Amino acid sequence: MKFDLGSIMYILENASSLEDLEKARLSMFGKDGSITEAINSLRFLSGKDKAEQGKELNKVKTAVLDAIAQKKRTLEEEALNRALLSETIDMTAPYKQSNEGREHPITHVIEEVTEIFSSFGFSVQDGPEIETSFYNFDALCVPHHHPSRSDQDTFYFDSGALLRTQTSSVQIRSMQKLGVPLRIIAPGRVYRPDYDNTHSPMFHQIEGLAVGYGVTMAHLKWCLEEFCRRFFDRTMKLRFRASFFPFTEPSMEVDVPCRRVSGKIEVGMEGDWLELLGCGMVHPDVFKNCGIQDDKITGFAFGMGVERLAMVKYGIGDLRDFFCNDQRFLKYYGFSISDKAH
Ligand code: DAH
């Protein structure tokens, strides 16, 4: 039997995959393969013919097996290169923005307010969320019969400790710790048993306290006016309305001018007023309760609700939305990290 080595090599050379190559190998070396058959039929020959054909066949067999092994290596190498290529990272491909984390509007507002008051020389102070009645009420001159102390309005532990209802407790802790004069703000969580579209049992306040010699209401007014101008990005006349808080005398609530247009509030436009925060001059008894005896020391304090600031500035309708962690809300009202530059 004669083999056309040229055409065998041609077939092997053109095998385009490992499967093709295996098929070609089986067609020659399988049980019924052409080379297998030729080797088997040698037994019908004898003498010189057998020796010659045997030698010839061996040559073919070796050449073909070498060619198959060679081609196999080439095809395997190509398959590896293809896999490597398909796994390369395309640095120019657009990235998926949908998975980017966003800054919660509450965090954002706390950062904005902190930045403004830092520029006025206020440092940031912290206090515990589980408080004693002394820091949350007594030292702030809240009398025992005051309704805010009842268990309808304050979360109490069996031990008598409570979840702070106001960041004003940090006023006392800061004066005890740092002494006076001082200028601090204290952002943080506070708790009250309320739940509707403008109340949540946990919410955030930012307390402010400035104490020193010769601190007057003029300083308080400037601070709050300048704060509002920067926070709302426009100059506006604030309304200081007489009010009452046990730890300030006199006490005031501050309103910002606003206009309500088809259910939306536009701050800064004249027409109506929107209550923004509480403030006043620190009551002399508060100083005494902190062990400060100096009669010449005066101070002002203020407290504002962070959710309220965020709702007003960013037009958010329901306060409970802040804490549902609905991805659609966070995507819409959250802040991209790149917004931080502004
Ligand atoms: N703590 C008050 C509240 O939760 C807010 C407040 C009012 C804080 C007047 C103050 C202040 O520091 O001077 O309603």
UniProtKB/TrEMBL annotation:
GO molecular function terms here? ligase activity
Q: What are the Aminoacyl-transfer RNA synthetases class-II family profile domain coordinates in residue numbering?
A: 109-312
**Which cofactors is this protein said to need?**
Mg(2+)
Q: How is the cofactor bound?
A: Binds 2 magnesium ions per tetramer.
So where does Mg(2+) get bound?
A: E249
Spell out the subcellular localization from the entry.
Cytoplasm
Chief localization: cytoplasm
The main enzyme category here is: ligase
Q: Which domain of life is it from?
A: Bacteria
| Enzyme Commission number, as recorded | 6.1.1.20
Keyword field: Aminoacyl-tRNA synthetase, ATP-binding, Cytoplasm, Ligase, Magnesium, Metal-binding, Nucleotide-binding, Protein biosynthesis
Q: Which CDD domains match?
A: PheRS_alpha_core
Record's catalysed reaction(s) = tRNA(Phe) + L-phenylalanine + ATP = L-phenylalanyl-tRNA(Phe) + AMP + diphosphate + H(+)
Under the heading InterPro entries, the entry gives: aa-tRNA-synth_II, aa-tRNA-synth_II/BPL/LPL, Phe-tRNA-synth_IIc_asu, Phe-tRNA_ligase_II_N, Phe_tRNA_ligase_alpha1_bac, Phenylalanyl-tRNA_Synthase, tRNA-bd_arm
The family annotation for this protein states: Belongs to the class-II aminoacyl-tRNA synthetase family. Phe-tRNA synthetase alpha subunit type 1 subfamily.
Subunit description: Tetramer of two alpha and two beta subunits.
- Give the protein name, as stated in the record: Phenylalanine--tRNA ligase alpha subunit
